[in-house]
Design a protein that fits this description.
By secondary structure, the protein is α+β, with helices and mostly antiparallel strands. It has one domain: CBS-domain (Roll). Helices cover about 20% and strands about 20% of the residues. The chain has four helices and six strands. The strands form three sheets. A two-stranded parallel sheet has the order 1-4. The protein has a two-stranded antiparallel ribbon with strand order 2-3. A two-stranded antiparallel sheet has the order 5-6. It is elongated.
Length: about 160
Amino acid sequence: MLSLSMVMGGTATAIDPGRARRIGDLVREASVTVTPGTTVDEARRLVRETPTGYLPVVDRGLLVGIVCDRDLRTAGGPSAPVAEVMTRTVFVLSPETPVRDAARVFRRRRFGAMPVLEGRELCGMVARDAVREALAGAGDPRGVPLDPSGQGSDRVGSGP
């Protein structure tokens, strides 16, 4: 069973990251997705094509999980289905989520990217770096540190 944690609701349009005020301004279409039955081997190939190392797992048009390169490394074998290693508890954002609120979620959960849903429909993905860039581009004097440790970002699919 999929468990979603939603941060607010709305619609999406793309603008200059420095002017972004909500996640809908930063969302990128999730052009590569997998299904629960996709093999680990195929998912490994596809995840290398994504800029942040994550793949939304979609079944009948609905988000059912997420998988990252780290998840795929723990798989039982190349022919195992993604369903065996995907993360089923997925934190998601809405297009209307304020960028500052999303930054706090990224900082607390240490995700590298998060899915963006409108209702139950996948709008796309937003990367932690895009949120960081939006805050920096806005000249936000109260900027939210996204990685206070300086150790780099973790990928979606793992928590703190």
